[in-house]
Amino acid sequence: MRWFKVLNKAQIPTIDSIKTITVDGRQVCIVNNADKIFATQSYCPHAGGHFDGGWCKNGNLICPIHRYEYNLETGRGAEGQGDYINIYPTELREDGLYVGFEESWWSKLWG
Ligand code: FES
Predict the structure, then answer these.
(1) Residue 74 falls inside a structural domain
(2) How far is the centre of ligand 1, averaged over its atoms, from the C-alpha of 38 (Å)?
(3) Which of 1, 6, 15, 93 is a plausible cystine mate for 100, CB 3.0–4.6 Å?
(4) pTM of the complete model
(5) Strands 69-71 and 90-93
(6) Residue 111: inside a domain, yes or no?
(7) Total tally of structural domains belonging to the chain
(8) What is the reported pLDDT for 105?
């Protein structure tokens, strides 16, 4: 696992909001759902909508384009969608928020 500091504590999105950040040139969405922080891929697998304009509902991230839903814990799409999004582990440390990426995933995509 490779960890990146992505935000200072003061920059973490407020409850039920989403912020897009760039990690080494790539976009990731930081989602605050009921004061729990998640990191997800930024584009919806359905038709490429950006999650930045989306919102949270019942632990799911809702895409603003066609309202597909993705579980923030597992990344799974709602029943019938047959898709999923990448969820990356987050860690709140003394100096801010960190997001972890699998080494194999990282080097395969962004090597
Ligand atoms: S692009 Fe996200 S639901 Fe269609």
Answers:
(1) yes
(2) 19
(3) 1
(4) 0.91
(5) unpaired
(6) no
(7) 1
(8) 57
Ligand 1 neighbour 44 (Cβ under 6 A): yes
Question: What separation in angstroms does the CA of 56 have from each of 14, 24, 42?
Answer: 12, 26, 14
Domain region containing 7: 2-102
Task: pLDDT tens for the chain, 111 residues: list them.
Answer: 899 999 999 999 999 999 999 997 789 999 999 999 999 999 999 999 999 999 999 999 999 999 999 999 999 999 999 999 999 999 999 999 999 998 765 566 654
Distance in Å, CA 52 to ligand 1 centroid: 12
> Residue 74: left (phi > 0), alpha (psi -120 to 50), or beta?
alpha
Q: Is there a domain that residue 75 lies in?
A: yes
d(CA 25, CA 5): 14
How many CA atoms are closer than 13 Å to the CA of 85, on its beta-carbon side? Answer: 31
Cα 60 to middle of ligand 1, angstroms = 14
